[in-house]
Design a protein that fits this description.
157 residues, alpha+beta, 3 helices, globular
Length: 157
């Protein structure tokens, strides 16, 4: 069985987003491919985007910057700071588009829950969004990114 979406972009309030996915991979592997540049460079970004760079100081207070290129050749970068890291369990980080798109900093919390079956329940929460349009654009981006993650997990070690 491949990944099974549980919630595909559920809206809790107008300014927040929750996505849950069930991955056919152990929690430590899902955490590893979410946090290590050598893995991120193989899958990061929504469909039709290719990773082009990862700068990362993976520690509380450390910064990150991820870049990707669209099929049309447009480069976009996002950055933030890690606020909380609990290995194999949770990451809390700020998020901002470097070009100022959407004009708001948000906080992302990703949670990795080990299931008895050996699978991982992955929860992604992001808030706030300044507009409903910004939130809805992120629903597509994050869900398609998680589709790419699911496919990568089938071959990752």
């Amino acid at each position: 069985m491949t990944d099974t979406p549980i919630l595909q972009g559920e809206v809790i309030q107008d300014d927040e987003l929750l996505i849950e996915r069930l991955f056919d991979a152990p929690r430590d592997l899902v955490f590893r491919v979410w946090t290590r540049p050598e893995h991120l460079m193989k899958w990061w970004g929504p469909k039709a985007f290719t990773p082009i760079g990862v700068e990362q100081d993976f520690r509380v207070g450390g910064a990150y910057r991820f870049g990707m290129r669209s099929a049309e050749g447009r480069e976009v970068w996002k950055s933030g700071v890690y606020r909380e890291i609990v290995p194999n369990e949770r990451i809390v980080m700020t998020f901002r588009w470097d070009d100022g798109a959407w004009d708001v900093d948000s906080v992302i919390t990703v949670t990795f829950i080990a299931l008895a079956s050996g699978r991982t329940l992955f929860r992604f929460h992001q808030a706030p969004f300044k507009t409903i349009e910004a939130r809805d654009a992120h629903v597509f981006g994050w869900t398609s990114l998680l589709d790419k993650l699911a496919a990568y997990l089938e071959t990752a070690q």
